């Protein structure tokens, strides 16, 4: 089971999230036939979106994370909500890049760094909140750290990591997001910085310790971390037949008629989960009537 925890530490002046999302990434890998480097990029992005969604205030709100760095992977798109539902895709799932070291996938080369990170917060109001910031290095964690600092004026530390087996299955995927509040004492801030600087690779922590709680104990050691909330996070797509009908209707009268004449039916596949929706001739005709 994939799990996310919300924590506080440092006398309430440090807050953060830890997430373990290997199962949702394995599901995404199977759906999209992801190459290792594509899986690493999407796993990091899904972990980040799962955590960012927990900063939302209410049900029905959602966050979209879009990363486009001009690299061969194309765009990474993730959508998550406060209930722990996450979906994600990449434009080119079969991309391969040369590893940085035999062990280390080159996510930055796949993503590219000539582009931007966009965060869309749908707060169930008229206009969504949209924040953007240029990419730093395409490794995603550093890009998000810069985004939070410059676009939301929130000093943060973001760690994201995915480890993949030789048969491409996901060994581990996880991350953390830690933010400090202005009232933090200098002593606590120094202690936090020293902890973050001295950490072993995050993939190693998640591989050895398995749970977000155990990783939290290591990352925030000496800062008296407390778990405020914990929840399951899952790969969950919210596509539906109604939405696909809306998509068909939006094509317009003429296009629908062409579909009926040429194929006598239509099939629409959801890009996030690959679920296919079929519409026969009479169903298509009904949609035209609704226009
Ligand atoms: Zn779907």
UniProtKB/TrEMBL annotation:
Under oxidizing conditions two disulfide bonds are formed involving the reactive cysteines. Under reducing conditions zinc is bound to the reactive cysteines and the protein is inactive. Pfam families: HSP33. Its main location: cytoplasm. GO terms for cellular component: cytoplasm. Belongs to the HSP33 family. Disulfide bonds join 237-239, 270-273. The keyword Zinc applies. The lineage of its organism: Bacteria, Bacillati, Bacillota, Clostridia, Peptostreptococcales. Gene3D superfamilies: Hsp33 domain, HSP33 redox switch-like. It is found in: Cytoplasm. Redox regulated molecular chaperone. Protects both thermally unfolding and oxidatively damaged proteins from irreversible aggregation. Plays an important role in the bacterial defense system toward oxidative stress. Keywords: Chaperone, Cytoplasm, Disulfide bond, Redox-active center, Zinc. GO terms for biological process: protein refolding. This is 33 kDa chaperonin. InterPro entries: Heat_shock_Hsp33, Heat_shock_Hsp33_C, Heat_shock_Hsp33_N. The gene is hslO. GO terms for molecular function: protein folding chaperone; unfolded protein binding. NCBIfam families: PRK00114.1. It comes from Tindallia californiensis.
């Amino acid at each position: 089971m994939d799990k996310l925890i919300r924590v506080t530490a440092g006398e309430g002046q440090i807050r953060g999230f830890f997430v373990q999302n290997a199962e949702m990434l394995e599901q995404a890998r199977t759906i999209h036939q992801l190459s290792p480097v594509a899986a690493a990029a999407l796993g990091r992005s899904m972990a980040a979106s799962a955590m960012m969604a927990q900063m939302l205030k209410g049900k029905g709100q959602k966050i979209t994370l879009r990363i486009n760095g001009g690299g061969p992977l194309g765009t990474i798109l993730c959508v998550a909500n406060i209930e722990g539902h996450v979906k994600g895709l990449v434009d080119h799932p079969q991309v391969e890049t040369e590893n940085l070291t035999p062990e280390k996938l080159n996510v930055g080369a796949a993503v590219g760094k000539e582009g931007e990170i966009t965060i869309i917060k749908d707060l169930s109001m008229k206009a969504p909140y949209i924040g953007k910031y240029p990419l730093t290095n395409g490794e995603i964690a550093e890009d998000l750290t810069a985004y939070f600092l410059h676009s939301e004026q929130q000093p943060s530390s973001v760690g994201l990591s995915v480890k993949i087996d030789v048969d491409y299955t996901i060994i581990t995927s996880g991350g953390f997001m830690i933010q400090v509040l202005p009232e933090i004492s200098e002593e606590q801030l120094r202690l936090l910085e020293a902890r973050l600087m001295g950490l072993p690779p995050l993939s190693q922590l998640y591989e050895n310790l398995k749970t977000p709680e155990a990783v939290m104990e290591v990352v925030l050691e000496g800062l008296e971390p407390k778990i405020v909330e914990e929840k399951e996070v899952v790969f969950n797509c919210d596509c539906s037949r109604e939405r696909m009908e809306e998509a068909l209707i939006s094509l317009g009268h003429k296009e629908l008629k062409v579909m009926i004449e040429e194929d006598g039916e239509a099939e629409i596949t959801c890009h996030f989960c690959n679920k296919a929706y079929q519409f026969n001739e009479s169903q298509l005709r009904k949609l035209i009537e609704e226009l």
